[in-house]
């Protein structure tokens, strides 16, 4: 199947909270195409989050286990084009027969059906035929079925039959794992802090994440192990828009709360719960050392407190850094993350 790209496999599709449901549903479908209730399986999510990779991985896995199965991968755009061509060439029967003979159809980016009523009609019939025959349909889309504007209701209702599973932006840990896997595959080694820097700063899209890494490697004539953090920052200046961004209290608050796994708005509340107080005091301390804000502004930001509270917080943090090893590590960790940005 020339349409399947052998590079997209389950093996190199990193699992994380961001994709757990979609990935495991995809795996189930690959083991038993047409034989699960996940028919169609609809994978949806934003640009560059791994829809095509996962959809292709399902197709490749099916071919690996069941080489006789007819699996077709087609982008919605290409399908639409083929349909128009078949109209022009009077080969519409061939077109329909080709798709109806498949055991598995993977159609990528079905949001592109919007506005194309005739192609939707044809696909509606192909879908029904395949579904009735117990064949597997796999779809990807940039939105969940309920938000797909411009698609006919009857087609949408079919899309809702099986399972819709979304892909989210991977968390930091998963982004690091993706980069590591990618480098490992290419036989490249980079210092951990460089990988972390890239993963930290590119947090919207896996394609860009990989792009940054590729750009870094392309620019470098050095032994990759010699790329240090400073050099990486320099090389990625254009890639990472916020390199010279001023650190804000908002950002400090976000980092600290993420680190201690406390809800962001709690820091500004009146609560005296130990872990919240700790997060609040560290946030104040870091705001004093990493922003130009006055004590008064810092106090006001963290829940309308006065400047003496900020002084007290900073003193407390400094004391604890001296006396409590664990606490020192916490603050250092967060500071490191701040410097990454
Ligand atoms: P989409 O189709 O959603 O726009 P792609 O499937 O093209 O996204 O993914 C973009 C890039 O990110 C691809 O190179 C893909 O291999 C990679 N990618 C996305 N998610 C993962 C993941 N979980 N593990 C490994 N690579 C991933
Ligand atoms: Mg895609």
Computed Rg: 26 Å
Number of strands: 5
Helical proportion? 40-55%
Helix/strand/pairing category = alpha/beta
Instruction: Report strand order across the widest sheet.
Output: 2-3-4-1-5
Which small-molecule ligands are present, each listed once? adenosine-5'-diphosphate, magnesium ion
Number of helices: 15
Head-to-tail CA distance between termini: 44 Å
The coarse silhouette is elongated
Order of helix and strand elements from N to C terminus: HEHEHHEHEHEHHHHHHHHH
Percentage beta strand: 5-15%
Q: Which runs of at least 5 residues are low in confidence (pLDDT < 50)?
A: none
The biggest beta sheet reads: 5 strands, parallel
* Average pLDDT reading: 92
Polypeptide structure, described:
By secondary structure, the chain is of the alpha/beta class. It is 55% helix and 7% strand. The chain has helices at 20-31, 51-65, 76-89, 92-100, 117-132, 153-159, 172-185, 192-201, 206-219, 229-235, 249-260, 274-290, 295-301, 307-323, 325-340, and strands at 41-44, 71-75, 104-108, 136-141, 163-166. It has a 5-stranded parallel sheet, with helices on both faces. Helix 7 packs across helix 9 (206-219) and helix 11 (249-260) crosses helix 15. It starts with 19 loop residues before the first helix and ends with a helix. The site of magnesium ion (MG) has 3 residues, from helix 2.
